[in-house]
Amino acid sequence: MNLCFPGYSIATEITGPTTVNGLEWGSLTVQCAYGSGWETYLKWWCRGADWNGCNILVRTNGSEQEVKKNRVSIRDNQKNRIFTVTMENLKRDDADSYWCGIEKTGIDLGVNVQVTIKPDTQTPVLEWTTATASLAFTPAATQKTSSPLTSCQGTEDKGLQRCSGRAPRLKKLGRTFGGILTCGLLCSPSSISPKYPQSHLRAHPAFWGRI
Description:
Keywords: Disulfide bond, Membrane, Signal, Transmembrane. By secondary structure, the chain is α+β, with helices and mostly antiparallel strands.
């Protein structure tokens, strides 16, 4: 039985949800069912509270093939007698009054669906990528700084003769220390004569008497 109103027909042959909620930037799906005998009729999705002035956003082509226009798609499952409308990338101003409809001769069949869009309150997360630098050390540098005494074998005297590294430097240091000690014993102020130019010595002959 059809309940007829001016401009459109609300029929038991088509049913759908009263209200559908969607999240901003997300998607929503509306499923409208119809009775037997309407399988091959065109189905549509219309926006606007006024039935006579609503804007048809998308409609089927009489088959089960999906039809998409902009952000809205529609697909008719004729076997189960359900057609599905999907709205993607939702915006806040998509909230409105819509209609599921079946196109037929005379007055189309339709059912009103209210769509509400909830704002997305999630804060976008910014991801930062930090580049890290690593220092590379060559094995050769490590070998040069390692202790050469660890490879020495035999007695201590032989080890000092055979090892290169700190042991030879100790010998060199000993020779240097001996030289300093010898200089301290031999090099005294009394054994060092001041050096002056010959002209200066001739000018002050009495200088040598005070030494």
